[in-house]
Structures are given as C-alpha cells and as structure tokens.
Amino acid sequence: MKKLISWLAALVLAMGLGLIVPGSANAAAPYCGITWGSGPKYSKTYTGDAITDVRSGRHACFDRLVVDLHGKRAAGYNVQYVASVHEDGSGRRIPLRGAANLRIIVHAPAYKDGKATYLPKNRKEVVDVTGYRTFRQVAWAGSFEGQTTIGLGVRARLPYRVFVLDGPGKHTRVVVDVAHRW
Asked: What Cα–Cα distance (Å) separates residue 119 from each residue in 14, 82, 142, 164?
C-alpha cells in the first residue's frame, strides 16, 4: 500500500512540474500556432499596379509564395482549392503536381501599357520549389483583363493564409503561406 501511495505521489508531482503532460493537451494544440483553415480567401480590391515578380521561400512551419507588385495600391486576391486550374483567356487546363491544386488569382495585371511587366522564363515552373515540404509546383496560368492567375500544386489540402504587405518603397506584395501540416 505504501508503494502505491508513493507511486501516486510521484506521478502527481511529475504532472504538477509539467514533466508528464496528458496526451489530450498536446492533441488540441495547433501546429505551430496555425489556425488558418483551408477554405476560400479573398479581397475584392483591384489595382492597375503591375506584377513584377513571383518568388518563394521555405519557413519552419510553412512554405511561402510571394507576388510582387510595383505600386503602393494594395491588390486584392481570390485564393482557393480547386479541382483544376485553368489558363486565363483560353480556359486550357494547367496540370499541376501534388495532391491538391491551389488557384491564386491576384487582382492586378502582369502588364503595363500592353507590355509584360512579368513573364516567367518557364510557365510550368515559375519558381523552383524542389525540396519544399508542401509546395510541389508553381505554374503560370496567365494575366488577362486586369487579373493574374497562378496555379500552386501542393502535397495535400492543407491550411493556408493570404495577406498583403506594403513596402519596401513603392511596392506591395501578395503573400500566400501554406502550412506543412494540420
């Protein structure tokens, strides 16, 4: 009986010191604090400021895609998981690697006065995402009637967020972060 009481006392002490944490406490905690969800995200704002670059980066908890614009007026967006991404204007299907397709529409053109302000060297591989945990492919779907579409092939339908950042200087950025896991 004394051994049982000693073991129970040791267990209560260990839990009180945080050395033993019940499994249910960890299961409810979000991955890296991420609570974004995977539903559609949009902002209705349109801008005539043109897209100048598309780039990506890897972070500890998510992969990031950045669309750079020249100008201080924030661009809107419509980002959501879709069955397939289609080319602007023609409607041609854009095949993407990965188990889920994220269609990114930025409410800004990739041209100014009829001339391209951004045209990827390779429409099927806009940026190199080799070795990324979540991204599988970034493909160009075109820029038509003041909006630009990019297809993002991802490993699975994962939570993501979209936001606009000002700067540096006379630039703005549309940012899409996709979590590595739920």
From this structure: 60, 24, 9, 21
